Amino acid sequence: MKIAIGGDHAGFIFKEEIIKMLSSQGHEVKDFGPFSEASVDYPDLAHPVALSVEKGETQFGILICGSGNGVAITANKHQGIRAALCWTEDLGLLARQHNDANILCLPARFIDLELAKKIVNNFLSMEFEGGRHQNRVDKISC
Description:
This protein is an alpha/beta fold. Helix content is 43%, strand content 17%.
């Protein structure tokens, strides 16, 4: 699976560790940065991740910032993007099952790395249920 990943300085360490995990699982990961803990503006990195998913260059995206809100708000400006802020394992599952989310947003300052990895694995392993949820998802885009 091809996965785009990015975020801001608050998510840098999580990003690096999640890349290692995903690569060891055989996924192809496209890293949009940041490439250090130096302060960056999250939209500069969230937009390229969202574009990669929107254009079909990658199947899913992962965005990580301090609260997860900034990257989620930014990514959701793109048509066809359904970015979900998740801080529990169940939210990661439901984001895929019910909302057909294609970008996972994580709040690095509010969860630990092990939980973040579990959420990522749940998100990527779950299929969209379709059915009654498809009608709702079809109404999201403007």
